[in-house]
Amino acid sequence: MKDKPFSIAIDGPSGAGKSSAAKAVARELNAMYLDTGAMYRAVGVYMMRNGISLDDGEAIEENVSGADIQVRFENGVQKMYLAGEDISEAIRTPEASTAASKVSAVPGVRERMVQLQRSIAAGHSVVMDGRDIGTHVLPDAPLKIFLTASSQERARRRWLELQEKGANQSYEDVLADIRERDARDCGRAASPLRKAGDAVELDCSRMDLPAVTREILRLARERMA
Ligand code: DC
Fold first, then answer.
1. CB of 46 sitting under 6 A from ligand 1
2. Spatial CA neighbour of 200 closest among 177, 179, 218, 184
3. What is the number of the ligand 1 atom nearest to the C-alpha of 41?
4. Is the whole-model pTM more than 0.70?
5. 181 lines ligand 1 (CB under 6 A)
6. What is the pLDDT along the chain (225 residues), one digit of tens a residue?
7. Contact present, 60 and 101 (Cβ < 8 Å)
């Protein structure tokens, strides 16, 4: 397991804790962690900065080739660059999140991002999280996880995080936002969010991060022994 590159795909809806679990699993297995949502967020930021309507799929498709997006790993941490500028923080705003969800429905955007994701993963052991990793990006991954939690639980966790940061969004608003994103991510024609036939579904509504991480590591060791 140490020498041969392997890949683990972790998909699921927003707020299920994919990135925290994927990061912890990658650290434990000495693999590269790739957050693919960050790439769609970067495209969203590019479109917003260039005044391109997020509801105009054709314009997004026409403009995506102009987005000079780079993924860099600095001290093991993934950073996103747009035309040489570090936008790793700018992609985390609620606006960038909505923009990402909208641009990710555009087939031309997905094609470019998938190409980039596959080229980054080539030759490395990788833990990748997203929405279409198991179904499309890495269909041969020996371990695919579909990480879910109820929308209420995901909203509760996100709301607590926001409270800690001092933001005063109501729980109801956070829940409505999560449900809107779920509908968009699951309802689009291009690579909608769905569980791959051979993925293991983990409902983490009643599991904390260490328990989720342990379970994924157990499955990984079992599959790759
Ligand atoms: O995981 P995230 O919240 O950073 O993702 C932002 C958006 O990008 C999300 O609404 C769905 C989309 N996305 C996608 O369509 N495919 C992926 N592999 C990753 C994210």
1. no
2. 218
3. 6
4. yes
5. yes
6. 445 789 999 999 999 999 999 999 999 999 999 999 999 999 999 999 999 999 999 999 999 999 999 999 998 899 999 999 999 999 999 899 999 999 999 999 999 999 999 999 898 899 999 999 999 999 999 999 999 999 999 999 999 988 998 888 899 999 999 999 899 999 999 999 999 999 999 999 999 999 999 999 999 999 988
7. no
